[in-house]
Amino acid sequence: NAGVTQTPKFQVLKTGQSMTLQCAQDMNHEYMSWYRQDPGMGLRLIHYSVGAGITDQGEVPNGYNVSRSTTEDFPLRLLSAAPSQTSVYFCASSMNRQDNYGYTFGSGTRLTVV
Amino acid sequence: KQEVTQIPAALSVPEGENLVLNCSFTDSAIYNLQWFRQDPGKGLTSLLLIQSSQREQTSGRLNASLDKSSGRSTLYIAASQPGDSATYLCAVQGGKLIFGQGTELSVKP
User: Which residue of A has its CA nearest to B35?
Assistant: First the structure.
């Protein structure tokens, strides 16, 4: 089915480890973004991309890197995991930044840093 | 800076009631507003999208309205069912998609 695919669904990391959360979409969407969801904080934007080769910071970018080498993929890298990065991470895509068709979200990655 | 507020934070109603969820935003310069549903431990499911030029959208028992000038949107759920129990999130798109904190709805049989 067309949509946004996130892997893995669950991950446990030790403090200081690095990892990459994968996000792929097959809808030829230009705009992709990463959010984290924490109790009491809602969904907060980490990084976003308006097209291949273009990325920018959101509200809470520290500790995360992104790249957009293709239209389909938008991986999120944790450089040195910290317990404060324990969260549920969602990837989303839309046709473009102004989007008149709405956003499509992946099913999320639940990350625990111990 | 755009801020989105949803009231109430939680709502419990008996089955069959009609109900209204509220969303307000501080910056009226938006492209559209989207309502999502999130079940516990799950992702976000899009319910309705209202373009900035529209006043309302309907899907089945759901009706969403948008008043840009006052910075408000409402989600009306008719004849609520236990299966409607979930957290409902509104989000405004004005270059970035900014979310409210959500309303946790519980519909009791």
Answer: A102
Query: In angstroms, how far apart are the furthest CA atoms of chain A?
Result: 41
Cβ B95 vs Cβ A97: under 8 Å:
yes
SS3 state at B99: strand
What is the share, in percent, of chain B residues with pLDDT greater than 90?
Answer: 82
Residue A81's CB is within 10 A of a number of other CB atoms, namely 22
Q: Which two tokens stand for residue A88?
A: 């549920």
Asked if B32's CB is within 8 angstroms of A100's CB, the reply is yes
The CA–CA distances, whole Å, from B27 to A28, B3, B91 equal: 30, 8, 12
Each residue's pLDDT tens digit, A53-85: 999 999 999 999 999 999 999 999 999 999 999
**Best A25, A29, A55, A105 residue to mutate vs chain B (most B CBs within 10 Å):** A105
Prior bond of A8 cis (ω within 30°): yes
First CA to last CA distance, chain B: 41
- Min Cα–Cα distance to chain B from A98, Å: 6
- Token pair of A83, please? 């317990």
φ, ψ dihedrals at A25, nearest 5° = -130, 150
Report the share of chain B in percent with pLDDT over 70: 100
DSSP structure string for B5-64: EEE-SEEEEETT--EEEEEEES----SEEEEEEE-TTS-EEEEEEEETT-SEEEETTEEE
